[in-house]
Design brief:
The complex is a heterodimer of chains A (133) and B (61). Chain A is built from six helices and five strands, in the order βααβααβααββ. Chain A is of the alpha/beta class and 133 residues long. In chain A, helix 1 packs across helix 3 and helix 5 packs across helix 6. Chain A starts with 6 loop residues before the first strand and ends with a strand. Chain B has 61 residues and is mostly helical. The chains are: A alpha/beta (133), B mainly alpha (61).
């Protein structure tokens, strides 16, 4: 959990969290660099839930390390955004990716994801940063 | 002596403990990716998109 003074640099979607759990070096490098720069990576609550579900909670201890770290902040959706989130859900195909897209749009940063095509319909398709290893 | 928790340690150290090697070169590469993403970001386009989805009905997606 961040100390609140860090600038948001990236939003992690569920695939990025699964990447982190799987030992993705690219995901690790990005979060480590953000930490070194005194920045923060935001993890939407819906993406945390989806990643935990995807991994069948087999890596709960690792998930707790991630969400407890000073460079990571878990955020829930703003209830006032329900209509926009519903629209985004139709564009990106799932509620967790809608939350990631909304937080990225709100914070003015990109979504770290395994597949940028999921976000191709959002703001000209330029909100995703794809990792491949 | 007080022991540092994983929340207080650098992400690089935490990842090393988990067996994920993060090098200075790797972080330089990550830094470059973040800067490139900052440079190509179109804030006006994003603001317009956000305004649009905040006013249109979900069925219009």
């Amino acid at each position: 959990m961040t100390d609140g003074k860090r600038a948001v640099r990236l939003v992690l979607d569920a695939s990025a969290v699964v990447g982190w759990l799987s030992g993705s070096v690219a995901v690790g490098e990005l979060i480590a660099e953000i930490d070194d720069e005194f920045g923060a990576a935001v993890l939407p609550l819906n993406c945390l839930v989806e990643a935990a579900h995807t991994t069948a909670m087999l890596q709960q201890a690792h998930l707790e390390i991630l969400i407890g770290h000073r460079a990571v902040s878990v955020l829930a959706d703003d209830p006032d955004d329900w209509l926009a989130l519903s629209t985004l859900r139709g564009i990106v195909g799932s509620a967790d990716r809608a939350s990631a897209a909304m937080l990225a749009l709100d914070a003015g940063v990109d979504v770290l994801t395994r597949d940028a095509r999921w976000y191709a319909g959002v703001a000209g398709g330029r909100i995703a940063l794809e990792f491949d290893r | 002596m007080e022991q540092e928790t994983s929340a207080q340690r650098s992400m690089t150290e935490v990842l090393a403990d988990l067996g994920v090697p993060v090098t200075a070169e790797g972080k330089a590469r990550a830094s470059e990716r973040l800067r490139d993403a900052d440079a190509r970001r179109d804030h006006a386009e994003r603001a317009a998109f956000l305004a649009e989805i905040r006013r249109r009905p979900a069925t219009a997606a």
